[in-house]
């Protein structure tokens, strides 16, 4: 299994309404719950009006389509990073899992993942 490190700087932010978000940007992840609207998007595309925001993230894409029957992949990756005190923000889509790490920890994250059997390719 290989991971692809995407170079685009990302921001995790909250908005009060989806009207604030340009839905055509890529990458874009939106989570809507009864309590909040949380968004991950390129830092350059964050709307001026947010409730909260945290800049400085980069994304690892787990390459290939992961079957729902696969167990423990995110746990193994996040566990390896946790041992190195690298916090993550995990996202999943129907086909793919993503792990975000802070940009100031990205070199250590790449080294850790490579050392633990998760080769990282950079775009």
Describe this structure in words.
It is a single chain. With 123 residues, the chain is an alpha+beta fold. The protein has one domain (3-112): VC0802-like (2-Layer Sandwich). The chain is built from two helices and seven strands. The protein has helices at 73-83, 106-115; strands spanning 3-15, 29-32, 37-42, 52-62, 88-92, 97-102, 120-122. Strands 1, 2, 3, 4, 5, 6 and 7 form a seven-stranded mixed β-sheet that branches. The longest helix has 11 residues, at 73-83. It is elongated. The two termini are 16 Å apart. The model has no long low-confidence stretch (mean pLDDT 92).
Fill in the keyword field for this structure.
123 residues; alpha+beta; VC0802-like; seven-stranded mixed β-sheet; 2 helices; 17% helix
Structural class: alpha+beta
**What form results from the Cα inertia axes?**
elongated
Beta content: 35-45%
Rg over CA atoms: 15 Å
Query: What CATH first level would be assigned?
Result: Alpha Beta
- Flag low-confidence runs: none
Helices, by number, come to 2
User: How many domains comprise the coordinates?
Assistant: 1
CATH A-level architecture = 2-Layer Sandwich
Characterize the largest beta sheet: strand count, sense, and whether it forms a barrel. Answer: 7 strands, mixed
Helix content percent band: 10-25%
What is the N-to-C succession of helices and strands?
A: EEEEHEEHE
CATH homologous superfamily label: VC0802-like
CATH topology: VC0802-like
**Average pLDDT taken over every residue:** 92
How many angstroms does the end-to-end distance come to?
A: 16 Å
């Amino acid at each position: 299994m290989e991971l692809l490190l995407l170079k685009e700087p990302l921001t995790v932010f909250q908005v009060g309404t989806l009207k604030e978000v340009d839905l055509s940007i890529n990458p874009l992840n939106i989570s809507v719950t009864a309590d909040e609207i949380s968004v991950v998007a390129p830092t350059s595309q964050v709307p001026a009006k947010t409730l909260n925001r945290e800049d400085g993230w980069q994304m690892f894409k787990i390459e290939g389509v992961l079957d729902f029957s696969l167990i423990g992949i995110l746990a193994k990756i996040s566990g390896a990073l946790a041992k190195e005190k690298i916090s993550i923000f995990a996202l999943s889509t129907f086909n793919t899992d993503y792990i975000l790490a802070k940009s100031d920890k990205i070199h250590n994250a790449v080294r850790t993942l490579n050392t633990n059997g998760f080769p990282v390719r950079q775009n």
